[in-house]
Amino acid sequence: MLRSVIRRSWLRSTLYGVLACAPLVAGCTGSSDPASDWERDHAKGLEARQAGRYAEAESRLAAALKAAERFKPDDPRLLTTLTDLIDLYDAQGKHSEIEPLLRRVLTVTEQTQGQSHPQAAGVLHKLAKLNHRLGEYGEAESFYRRALAIDDKALGPTHPDTLVLVHEYAALLRETNRADEADTFLAARAKTNKGTAPLPICPD
Predict the structure, then answer these.
(1) Burial per residue of 89-111, b for 16 or more beta-carbon CB atoms within 10 angstroms, e otherwise
(2) Domain for residue 164, yes or no?
(3) Are residues 131 and 71 in the same domain?
(4) Chain segment 132-149, per-residue pLDDT in tens
(5) Which of 19, 90, 129, 182 has the fewest CB atoms within 10 Å, i.e. the most exposed one?
(6) Which pLDDT tens digit goes with each residue over 94-106?
(7) CA pair distance 164, 122, nearest whole angstrom
């Protein structure tokens, strides 16, 4: 009988130990499904943003980003989440929060599409406009020139996207007291494009 009592006591203590350690084991093994986590937090984040609950939206989308970072680098959910966070910060005027996210978008785009892809130029253009708006003219000029170099080759000098870059870059030159340089730049572009009709701008 004594042996039976001892055995039951040992079984109880062992069972309690297993149950107590179970949450720790589950946490250490990372048993949660990142796909489910992303789907839940991303949907809740968009829902909160639409309702104007920006703090909740930011928290949810940040959680969705953590889940997306566990996917493969070329998984579209990563870019989707980064873009949604950028849009959220832009809606709140949190422009300083946008640049690091845009730089991440640029890195992912260059890795998946290539450094000379028009999509990379599009991200560079956004970085240029953001820095232009913030008065970071040196950074803005660098991004404009990089985007322009890509679009000139990939899309052509008369493509609407290229022409937008040309005029925004010229505007930056004028804002930084370099009107003569802007005029020279525009004259050179006009000479290069002479006889080539601009491509029509297609509606979205």
Answers:
(1) beeeeeeeebbebbebbbebbbe
(2) yes
(3) no
(4) 999 999 999 999 999 999
(5) 19
(6) 998 999 999 999 9
(7) 11
Q: Report the C-alpha gap between 95 and 108 in whole angstroms.
A: 21
122 lies in the same domain as 49: no
Q: Is the four-CA dihedral 168, 91, 65, 139 of positive or negative sign?
A: positive
* Chain mean position to CA 152: 24
Count of all residues that appear for the chain in the document: 204
Into how many domains does the chain fold? 2
Domain range spanning residue 162? Answer: 115-199
- Give the global pTM: 0.77
Q: Does residue 175 have a pLDDT over 90?
A: yes
Domain-embedded: residue 10: no
Does residue 107 contact residue 124 with C-beta atoms inside 8 Å? no
CB 34 within 8 A of CB 67: yes
**Domain containing 134 — which CATH number?**
1.25.40.10
Q: What is the largest CA-CA distance in the chain?
A: 106
